[in-house]
Amino acid sequence: MAAVAGTVERARRGLRPNRLTISAGIIAGWIVLWSVLRGRDTLSLATSDTTPLHDRLTALRDYVDNHRYSSAFFTDFVNVIRNTVDQITIFLQNLISQPSFGRPVPLIGWLGVVALASLGAFAFANWRMALLTATGFVTFGLLGLWQESMDTLAVTVVAVGLSLLIGIPLGVWVGLSRRVERLATPVLDVMQAMPTFVYLAPLSLVFLIGPAAAVITTLIYAMPPVIRLAALGIREVSTTSLEASRSLGATRWQQLRTVQLPLAKRTIIVGVNQTTMAALSMVTIAALIDSPGLGQTVLKALQSTDVGTAFQGGLALVVMAIVLDRVTTAASVRAEARYRARSRPATQVARKWSLIVLGGLTAVSLYLSYTYYWAALFPGEDRVGVIGRPISDGVGSASNWILVHLFTVTSSIKDGFTYGLINPFQELLADSPWYLICAVVLALTWTVAGARAVILAAVCLGLLVGTGVWQESMVTLTSVIVAVLITLAVGVVGGVLIARNRRANLVLRPVLDAAQAMPSFVYLPPAVGLFAPSRFTAIVAAVIFAVPVVVKVVADGIAGVSPTAVEAATASGSSNWQIITKVQLPMARASLVLAANQGLIYVLSMVVVGALVGGGALGYLVVAGFSQSDLWGKGLAAGIAIVVLCILLDRVTQAAARRAQAADTADRYVADRTLRPTDEAPQVPVMPHSPI
């Protein structure tokens, strides 16, 4: 077994001390010093208290408000953008969701919208996606949430359209120019690592609240995936194809138009899929800045602890996510297979006639929805729906039954984790002096990630201290650590199961794919229904949200372990448990560290959203900044702290993942040198930043 042999050989030669032992020693020393210095210099601040920085940020808000209609920057630039986006969004709402143009119903009623959406799904994908789309859209009406769903769809469509209009050309530019790529990569990394909450305050300051601010916020959050994937598609075009076009005298523009863009089409459409799902997730969070749609339904229900209505809105979001995800995924598959269909004229003719027939039916549906009330307003649309009220009442009753009859079980689980895990971690972090925390973080960073990461960690810690919300940051970090520990425990078990069991892989993979496509809001109502609002509830929602990506990363790492090493262990008489713990997990440690990185980012983004269900700390301050005028600056500082914390965790774990991968390569190299000496140096692959 190469990895084991390499590790033994490296230990024998004393190439480096054991990092796990050093880390354990650092933590032990931290606990000893905490017991002596507990409660000193914790930089605690009451919720209603502010620092000079918070007051200056609030004064900045007031200054912007006072000069919004007198400054040329706002009147000639910001307000023009806001009004334009607002008009586009409202126009689309008037078409499909809001009564408009002097009519008591939208211009295009429900029947016309269903027909148009189905026609689009068939044109870009296939018949199955058209049927899925029709079923999904009808479900919105049956749930009694047709107007809210169409409002969400309108904001999402405008945001995605603008994201693609800006993002695809930028992605092509990044793919063509290495200099632009070097400039764009760190910006895209930060944009993708930032939790959704942190976009709200600064963008609402500039663009106010409402549909325009929601669209622009969503646009900025959702654009990085399509930029990255468009650039990837351009870079992956083979040099042979480019050389062939150049030999025929093609210019750079002709190469781009006739060779690179057509060959990169499938990758770009995958980027469209990722951008669409990111936009849907952000649109729901943007309900905090008055974005219309299903996010408002879920937010208001959570604020009143109405689990049934929150679940009803969440179910509509799930249906919309599934429809958008499957249609765009099928479109990418069809883009790849289209050239094969061109060789089958009969298929092309059949599809053309199908489009003509479906287009005719769509035209009839549009006329009916414009002319007749029954085709304009969904039957029974009275905000309860045919299945909406039974689902809402059923879920509400089930939640109440659980809270009453299973209170002993749920409270035992909640109290066990709270008093046995959450509170001890919080006392250790929040009651330690700030300088002790900084020293511990820097020492651990040096140990697991190397000297370069220490500089970034020191800068981030300094910024956290400067924000004036240090203790809230430590409370948030507590929830993140607990959630990540649970997520990794579940993720490693699930990843090993999927990698080693083909049947489990066939069953669980689609579930994990679907779970990753869901907006974060969807996970809050079930957690509240089980455990009522609390810190633990926010942690449960974060774990459910983060587990799918961790399971998939771990499974891919286990599946990538050399079969030769597994066969050698099996031949030596190792049991399945020994193969997993002594061979597969050690050889997949780079994937495990990357899984920890992704788990951290996903958990942090969800933990701050968990402020809506009692999570508290930084997320609560962000929300409080919207509702309490005098805390606006403190809420913005909390958003900055979330960004800094996210960058710190992301960069340190990324550096640790690269170091682990380099160590894996060194292990194999040392083992190979032991078995058959060679002068060939090991090639250490670079760990790319995994987009979120």
What is the makeup of the main sheet?
Answer: none
Q: Care to count the β-strands?
A: 0
Name of the CATH first level of the largest domain: Mainly Alpha
- Give the helix tally: 30
* Alpha-carbon distance between the two ends: 34 Å
How many domain regions?
Answer: 2
Q: Give the uncertain stretches in residue-range form.
A: 1-16, 674-692
Rg on CA atoms, Å: 27 Å
Give the CATH architecture of the largest domain: Orthogonal Bundle
Q: Which percent band covers the strand fraction?
A: under 5%
Query: Mean pLDDT score, rounded?
Result: 81
Structural class: mainly alpha
* Helical amount: over 70%
CATH topology group of the largest domain: MetI-like fold
Which sequence of SSEs, written as H and E, runs from N to C?
HHHHHHHHHHHHHHHHHHHHHHHHHHHHHH
The CATH superfamily of the largest domain is identified as: MetI-like
Inertia-based shape: globular
